[in-house]
Amino acid sequence: xxxxxxxxxxxxxxxxxxxxxxxxxxxxxxxxxxxxxxxxxxxxxxxxxxxxxxxxxxxxxxxxxxxxx
Length: 69
Prior knowledge:
Elements: H1 11-23, H2 34-45, H3 47-50, H4 57-68
C-alpha cells in the first residue's frame, strides 16, 4: 500500500484524523494477543469497583480540547 503524505496537515488535524480512523474500527477488526485479552479481562473484572471514579471519554476529550485551546 502506498504511503500517504500528511505533512500538509497540522498536528491537531493529524490527531483528529487518527482519532477518526481508530473510531472507524470495530472491535473485531483489532486483533488481540492472548496476553492482551487477559489484561483486558483483568481490568474489566475490577471495573465495578472503580466505576464510581470513571469519567466518560467524551468528557475527558472535551477537557483536553479545552486545555489545548
